[in-house]
Amino acid sequence: MISGDDFSITFPLVMQEVDRFVANYALNLNILLFKDTDGWSSQHPSWFCVKP
To answer: pLDDT digit string (tens) for 8-52?
Structure first.
């Protein structure tokens, strides 16, 4: 498993590199959206991939 955070247009390079990684290794990208966005750690979606 590999994962990270800040998958949002606020961080375009994060999105670009994650998308490239997922494409290079033919992985499924999973995005975690948070309902409570008041805390600093939940303002932007997180992501994860699991190696098949």
So the answer is: 999 999 999 999 999 999 999 999 988 776 777 678 899 999 988
Q: What is the CA radius of gyration of the chain?
A: 11
Task: Give the Å distances, CA to CA, from 24 to 3, 10, 11, 18, 27.
Answer: 16, 23, 20, 10, 8
Cβ-based neighbours of 10, under 8 Å, separated by 6 or more: 44
Collapsing DSSP to helix, strand or coil, 47 comes out as strand
Q: Is residue 47 classed exposed, middle or buried when 0-12, 13-18 and 19+ CB atoms within 10 A define those classes?
A: buried
Contact 37, 5 (CB under 8 A): no
Amino acid 26: pLDDT: 96
